[in-house]
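[step 3/7] fold_predict: job queued, chain A
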Amino acid sequence: MTAPQPLIAGNWKMNGLGASVEEARAVAAGIGESRARVAICPPAILIHRLAQALAGTAVLVGGQDHHWDDAGAFTGDVSAEMLADAGASLAILGHSERRAGYRETDADVSAKVGAALRAGLEPIVCVGETLEQRKAGEALAVVTGQVRGSLPADLAGKAFSVAYEPVWAIGTGLTPTTPEIEEVHRAIRATLVEMFGEAGKSAPILYGGSVKPSNAAEILHADEVGGALVGGASLKAEDFLAIIRAV
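[step 4/7] structure written:
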């Protein structure tokens, strides 16, 4: 089987102003002949500007979250259709910061995935265990449970990816060992095949959680790691390009 094409996605989180568009342009200018697909997911207010700045380049633009309804009285929220209209082609859904800070459940994430598909967005669905769950030996059960609960049957035959982000590694500088990453990614792959059959073999499984230039090569060449969801290191073109080149 041909391995899924790697995806390197930068999650800017709540960072970035208009001047940050230049960092995105620098990524596009320096990307070269990468075998990976590359995406930048800025705050919603920057999506249109990035989409315009990156038009005709190899860098895709994505959103960081959206509502599960297509429209309505949801003050402060944006819909998947709005992200697509602004120029996004992907959306990060179920990030641990959303699950923990906004009490999002697997059912919420699954509903958002459905909305992404209706709008023509490619979902990046995040899963991951807390440090307490890992210490209790529950990491695989938690992660595979999130995969089953967060990925609706409608994804069959559609483009999507799963991002494994251990909660305890996000923004802490800590990362699991390579064998630990491989163990979880193999479990995710087995679950995807169980859910979607042959189609479950083609979705990239990204790793996220303190990915940086110094550890990117080891992580990206681990078994069943099909890319990375990069946080802080995606804010500077130099660092993000170093990770892209490590594929």
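[step 5/7] annotate
The first strand starts at residue 7 and ends at 11.
Strands lie at 7-11, 37-41, 59-63, 90-93, 122-127, 161-164, 205-208, 227-230.
exit 0
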